[in-house]
Amino acid sequence: xxxxxxxxxxxxxxxVLGLPEVKEKTKGGIIKSPELLKEEKQEVLQDFPVVLxxxxxxxxxxxxxxVLPLVRSIETIxxxxxxxxxxxxxxxxxxxxx
Length: 98
Fold this sequence. Notes:
Elements: E1 14-18, H1 34-44, E2 50-54, E3 67-69, E4 75-79, E5 82-88, E6 92-95
Antiparallel strand pairs: 1-2, 1-5, 3-6, 4-5
């Protein structure tokens, strides 16, 4: 997911991550089980989600950074129809360097 503008400003040390979309159906139209969807969502987090917004107390991460969050630390939300993740800065394991 590329950096895009969102209508949300996190507070404190929280950041908003753009999460890659995980399709709820297979190409053949079969609905995936909740367990499979959860597993696929955890796998896409290893693709370094992009930081879309940061709170005022965030010091080590900036908008546009690609980060590796610890999987259990993310709360997913929907804003303007997009699935996003909110995580505390302390739960970011690292920043991808190109």
